[in-house]
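Fold Annotation — chain and its backbone

Encoding — discrete vocabulary of local shapes
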Amino acid sequence: MVKKTRIKDIAVASGVSIAAVSRALKGQPGLSDETRQRIVSIAQAQGYDFSRLRNGRIKRLLFLLHREHNIASALPFYSTVMLGVADACREHEVAMSFQPIGPDDVVAELINLHQPDALICAGYLEPEVLAELRLTTLPVALVDLWAADFPCVNPDNYHGGFVATRHLLEQGRTRIAFFGTSQRHYSIRQRVEGYQQALFDAGLTLPADYRIEVPPVKDIEHALVDGMTRLLALPEPPDAIFAYNDVAALVAMRECARRGIRVPEEIAVVGFDDIDAAAWAHPPLSTVAVDKRELGRDAFQLLMNDESERSLLLPVRLVARESSVTDSHASRLRLAP
């Protein structure tokens, strides 16, 4: 039987106290960077099982969100996810703090400001940021993102993209555009794959011009307007749009209205996320509903249950509203469920 490396063993090899080793492995303050790195290196060399650090009670949790998820396009989604995390923290008497993060930040310094026992990271993060998170040795759960060596929880983005596109096909639409941003983001990539599968199953092949990918810039609304301009300038403009989220769908509908294009008579529109503004739009926006609060609660449970290898997929459902359904197009093309 292989003997497990203990904190005491690492302390002896490092020439420091057991308490110092514990602080180093948990990413807690009170040590120099040089000492911390030396202790972690010795622990790794001795084969210490870092997942054992997760057995202690979580008292402080830090919620990290990428800086590119700005208020206009992302916070209607991620603020509700964060509320779900906050609900779970309150029930378990865990203090929660929030920190925007990006590739230019020194991740360890930002984390140390909050002194958390665990991290929940939401949305897109660059590979280099994920690499720095691995070095913290803190328990980490990802929301709306997937990485092979992290516990993560995601909506079923592929199925959502599939059912949204199938719905538009059922309305008789044949020139269905995907209106999105960078496929660096795991969720968007999955939605595109669902969209493409639905088209394939229907025997439709569309030119690449019908897939708009706007750059992930700070002024995302301006980029979305430019993307809609390109779509509407096509020799055969789309008769339907599946947008990567509701904010993009609402921009699409606004641009159609500005040009006198009727929704849904001339262009049907479906979004994703079912933010509050979707039901208030004119016409009300069809969308794929995600239980955003449950995403946050489930991410918290992954940390509490120490399910370090677990990946959760939450179901989604289509909410058909007036932006995609007309009497003239209803049920022309029926596809198998």
User: Anything to note?
Assistant: Confidence is low (pLDDT under 50) at residues 329-337. The two ends are 53 Å apart (CA to CA). The CA atoms of residues 88 and 271 lie 28 Å apart. The longest strand covers residues 60-66.
